[in-house]
Structures are given as C-alpha cells and as structure tokens.
C-alpha cells in the first residue's frame, strides 16, 4: 500500500527519483497515466492490469466508458525504474499535469499520484475544509 506525501524534484533530464520507500514495490514496472484533477497516476504493472480488467468490463456501447478508457489508456506509459529508482516522465504527461521542478508524490493506497507541488498545495488547501466536514454519507459507518 502506498501512503504519505513526498517532495522530490524533477531532475534536469525530466526524470523523477521515486521515493525510496516505494522503489521495491515499483521495481517490477510502473505505469504512468493521466489522473483526475490534472495529476498523474502511477500504478504497479500488476495493479494497472487489475484496473484495466475492470475497465474492460464496462460496456463498449456506453460513451462515457469509451471516453474514460481513451483518455486513461492513450496517455499510459509503462517503464521500469533504473537502478537509482528513476523514471522519465514523458512530455505529454508532464504537460497534462503542468509539472515544474518541484513535485508532490502522494501515496494513495493502490497508486501514487504525481502533482506539481504548487498545484497540490492549492488543491489540499481547498479540500481540507471538505475533508473536515466529511460525514457518514461519504464513507458509511466510518465516522
């Protein structure tokens, strides 16, 4: 399970050094793709395959399902981290997430999210009040 927030910098050669605590789990391969709210999602290869199987179950006759699959899969980039735990973030993905040198890499359970640090800070500031007021209708029985 991926947890926590990390603040790596995007190297000059547009490589991201994955946080050390995640490297073992990602050593077998990582799939980067577009995420919601203009961040990037990073999945282990196995988790991406599981998620893809769920996407395939959606009826191709539903336009929203087709649209989602197109956006998610057309931006996907599969990589194997190098010995230093680095991956390259392709130009279209960097542009999609408006990544600068300063990043926020968040563990979100089954995936990592890669954000531009300033964008993440603004998002988090906006969402903290929503988080504080989250009630049982969001997660029944949790609170």
Q: What do these coordinates show?
A:
The structure is a single chain. The two termini are 22 Å apart. The protein has helices at 20-26, 45-56, 63-74, 91-96, 117-132; strands at 2-6, 15-17, 30-34, 40-44, 77-79, 86-88, 103-109, 112-116. It has a six-stranded antiparallel sheet. It has a two-stranded antiparallel sheet with strand order 2-6. The chain is globular, with a radius of gyration of 16 Å. It is an alpha+beta fold and 143 residues long. The longest helix is centred in the C-terminal third of the chain and has 16 residues, at 117-132. Strand 3 and strand 4 form a beta hairpin. The chain is built from five helices and eight strands, in the order E-E-H-E-E-H-H-E-E-H-E-E-H.
SSE topology sketch:
Blueprint: E1 2-6, E2 15-17, H1 20-26, E3 30-34, E4 40-44, H2 45-56, H3 63-74, E5 77-79, E6 86-88, H4 91-96, E7 103-109, E8 112-116, H5 117-132
Antiparallel strand pairs: 1-7, 2-6, 3-4, 3-5, 4-8, 7-8
Biggest sheet features: 6 strands, antiparallel
Residues in helix, %: 25-40%
Mean pLDDT: 92
In whole angstroms, the N-to-C terminal distance is: 22 Å
Low-confidence stretches: none
Gyration radius, rounded: 16 Å
β content, as a range?
25-35%
- Overall structural class, as computed from helix and strand content, comes to alpha+beta
The helix-strand sequence is EEHEEHHEEHEEH
Strand order of the largest sheet: 1-7-8-4-3-5
Number of helices: 5
* Total count of strands: 8
* Rough outline: globular
């Amino acid at each position: 399970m991926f947890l926590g927030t990390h603040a790596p910098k995007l190297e000059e050669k547009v490589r991201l050094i994955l946080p050390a605590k995640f490297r073992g789990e990602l050593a077998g391969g990582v799939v980067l793709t577009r995420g919601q709210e203009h961040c990037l999602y990073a999945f282990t290869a196995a988790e991406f395959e599981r998620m893809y199987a769920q996407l395939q179950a959606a009826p191709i006759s539903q336009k929203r399902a087709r649209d989602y699959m197109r956006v998610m899969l057309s931006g996907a980039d599969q990589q194997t981290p190098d010995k230093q735990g680095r991956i390259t973030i392709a130009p279209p993905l960097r542009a999609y997430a408006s990544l600068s040198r300063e990043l926020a890499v968040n563990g979100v359970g089954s995936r990592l999210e890669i954000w531009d640090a300033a964008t993440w800070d603004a998002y988090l500031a906006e969402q903290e009040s929503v988080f504080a007021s989250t009630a049982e209708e969001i997660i029944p029985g949790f609170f």
